[in-house]
Design a protein that fits this description.
The chain contains 10 helices and 10 strands. It is α/β, with parallel strands linked by helices. The longest helix is centred in the N-terminal third of the chain and has 26 residues. The N and C termini lie far apart (about 55 Å).
Length: about 300
C-alpha cells in the first residue's frame, strides 16, 4: 500500500535528521530524549518494513494488531485518561505516571513477543512470568512495558529469608496503590512461603474478577486499584531454586526468554548515539566481543 511506503520514506528521513541533531552540542537531558526517540522510531521503521513485506492492508491483520498501539480517546479525557493503549485483545488506559527522562530498552522481536504475552496475561487478570538465563532482559522487559504504559514498576529481589507476613504487607500496598511489582528470582523463596503467596495473589485476582472497590485481604478491608499488576522472573537451573507449586503456576503466564540479538541491539544503540553507518560497526563490535568471550578468560 502506498500509505505505508510513504510513511517509511518519511520515517527514514526523520531518523536521519535526528541522528544529525544528536551529533550537535546538546545538554544531557536533550541527548537522552533524542536517543530514546531514535530507539522508538527505529522500531517503528522496522515494523513498517515488516508490514510492507507481508503486504498488510487491513487494520484487523494480526501483523498490525500484535503491535503496542496508542489511541486518543476523547470521551475519557474528563476521567483523566485520554489515551488507550492496545495490543491484540488487551487494552489499558495510559497511566500518566511521571517517569522523567529514563533510558528505553531497544525493542527486538523477542521484546515484542514478551510484551504480547505480558499484556495478554494482564488482560486475563493474571501475572506474567518471564523465565530464562541471566542477561536475557527478563526484568528490563517488564520495566520497559511499564514505561510504555506509564505505570510505576517496583522491582524486588527475592531471597530465601522472605516470610508470608512481609509479602502480605507488600501485596496489600500493591493492590491499594495500583502499582506493578516485578519479583526477581522468585523461585529462591521457600516452598512453604510460596504456597501462602499463591493464596494472597489469588485473593487479589478474585477481587479484580468481581470488580470490587474494596475487599477483605487476610483480616483487613482494603481498597482495590485496578492498575495492580504482578510479575515474577525466574532463572531455572541454578542450585537451590524451588519448583513453583501448581496453584501458583496457574496465576502466571510463562514466557521463555532466550539470548537476545546482540548485533541488532548494538546497531540501534550506536544509531541512537549518532553513528551513521551503525550496521557495519555493530557487526564488527559483536564479532569482536564474541571472540573475546570465547577465547579470553574472565580475568
Amino acid at each position: 500500500p502506498k500509505g505505508l511506503t510513504d510513511f517509511l520514506d518519511f520515517s527514514v528521513a526523520q531518523i536521519d535528521k535526528m541522528v544529525l541533531v544528536i551529533r550537535k552540542d546538546l545538554t544531557n537531558i536533550q541527548r537522552s530524549v533524542m536517543a530514546n526517540l531514535i530507539v522508538i522510531d527505529v522500531h517503528a521503521r522496522d515494523v513498517t518494513k515488516r508490514l510492507i513485506r507481508d503486504e498488510v492492508t487491513a487494520v484487523t491483520d494480526f501483523a498490525w494488531i500484535c503491535q503496542l498501539r496508542y489511541y486518543w480517546d476523547e470521551p475519557t479525557v474528563d476521567e483523566q485518561h485520554g489515551v488507550i493503549v492496545r495490543q491484540t485483545n488487551a487494552w489499558f488506559y495510559y497511566a500518566w505516571e511521571y517517569l522523567g527522562v529514563v533510558a528505553r530498552l531497544v525493542i527486538t522481536p523477542l521484546t515484542d513477543k514478551c510484551f504480547m504475552t505480558l499484556t495478554g496475561a494482564l488482560n486475563l487478570l493474571l501475572g506474567g512470568a518471564p523465565a530464562g538465563p541471566a542477561g536475557t532482559g527478563k526484568t528490563e522487559s517488564v520495566k520497559d512495558l511499564g514505561k510504555a504504559l506509564a505505570y510505576p514498576v517496583v522491582v524486588f529481589n527475592c531471597s530465601d529469608g522472605l516470610d508470608y507476613k512481609m509479602m502480605e504487607k507488600f501485596f496489600s500496598g500493591l493492590a491499594q496503590a495500583g502499582v506493578w511489582a516485578c519479583f526477581d528470582e522468585f523461585n529462591r523463596i521457600d516452598i512453604e512461603v510460596l504456597s501462602v503467596i499463591a493464596q494472597q495473589i489469588m485473593t487479589i485476582c478474585d477481587a479484580l474478577k468481581e470488580f470490587k472497590d474494596r475487599f477483605d485481604f487476610f483480616g483487613k478491608e482494603i481498597r482495590l486499584n485496578r492498575n495492580y499488576g504482578c510479575f515474577i522472573t525466574m532463572n531455572p537451573g541454578y542450585a537451590g531454586r524451588t519448583e513453583l507449586p501448581d496453584n501458583l503456576k496457574a496465576l502466571f503466564r510463562p514466557m521463555a526468554m532466550m539470548v537476545p540479538d546482540y548485533a541488532l541491539i548494538a546497531e540501534i544503540m550506536l544509531f541512537s548515539e549518532g553513528f551513521g553507518d551503525s550496521l557495519t560497526l555493530a557487526r564488527k563490535q559483536t564479532a569482536m566481543y564474541r571472540l573475546a568471550s570465547e577465547q579470553l578468560s574472565s580475568q
